[in-house]
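Annotated sample (chain length 124).
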Amino acid sequence: MAIHESGEMYLETIYILSRELPVVRAIDVGEYMGFSKPSVSRALSLLKESGHVVADANGYLSLTEEGTAVAEKIFERHTILTRIITSLGVSEEIASADACRMEHVISDETFEAFKKHLAEKGTK
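Output written by the structure step:
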């Protein structure tokens, strides 16, 4: 099932938070993203229905295998694009914001070319 950009953002957020926190709750996602409880609740409900997110009896969120795959793809795109943009002299804040928009629309072919370019140039 195809995920919309907003769903990808939620999955990426859960992925990032799960690396930083012992458990991830809906309130953590809302605070991180700056979204209201109803918005977060609706989005998480859709992601649960689509099989990308599960919640345990305590309401702790985790990504399914499919959710993790999507989140890791978006996170990698964000990281690589930010590195490329900052290597051009753009500030980290602007580069990250631009990467956040680009990560959802860039083709696989172009992204792979960016990764290859970084590997060849050794850009950090």
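Annotation: The chain has six helices and two strands.
Annotation: The radius of gyration is 15 Å.
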